[in-house]
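Students often ask why we bother encoding 3D structure as a string. The short answer is that it lets us treat folding as translation between two languages. Here is a chain of 268 residues written in the first language.
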Amino acid sequence: MADNAAEAEKKPASKGKKRIHTLDELRGLAVFCMIFYHAFYSIGVFFQFEIGITLIHFFSPAEPYFAGLFILISGISSNLTHSNLERGCKLMFIAYAVTIVTFFVVGPAETIRFGILHMLSVAMIAYGLLTKVNALIPMWAGIAVNIILFIVTFTITQGYIGIPFLFRAVLPAEWYSSGIFYMFGMPSASFVSSDYFPIIPWLFLFFAGGFFGRLAAQKKFPEFTYKKHIPFLAFFGRHALLIYLVHQPVIFGICYGVKSIMSLVSPQ
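And here it is in the second language, the structure alphabet:
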């Protein structure tokens, strides 16, 4: 199993390899949910439509779940690529391009300083660098340890780590006030990012998916996962990055058009 995990990082997928369509569909579902969430955010925050504010407050509790699904699947898929290092470096370039664009388009207060693309790029690079080390760890042990670390550190942005009803450890305030550890889940009071997914705890969820993804590399997923069920979601999943990059400009354009029409129909 360890050897197979290492080889999955090095070798490109063979031409006859079956595609795991269920992963595409689940990734597509996560992207679909993110599009709606960002649409509500833009409608409410940027264009000040009351319905957007109401919807964003209603759906905010669900965001970690569909974002977590996306991150978990990204970890699983890291076993099906020829180079996580290459993918991670390319994605990091794109992520910081998004940072620059959002800075000039929506201003410093709504700039994406460390969003889901930033976190995923770091996770891919880390996974690529640690391939040989991870190969020495049994699959289920790797999954269990990373899930536990994810749960324990999930509240790190709130100033503490722990497990509900079991223990709670408050972290030094200096780690947060310094302002230099925001990417590790320790933002200062003045830190802002309209999309924020720190390395801790989300890296652990990615790695849990990475260990589970060994089954995908060995073609040991259940047979039904290799069949198409919802083509629409599969399409979204196969083109997740492109859709993620273009959906916000499209949403902005639609909102801007609607607001312009409303101002003409009902001038203030």
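Translate back mentally: The chain has a mean pLDDT of 87. Keep this in mind for the problem set.
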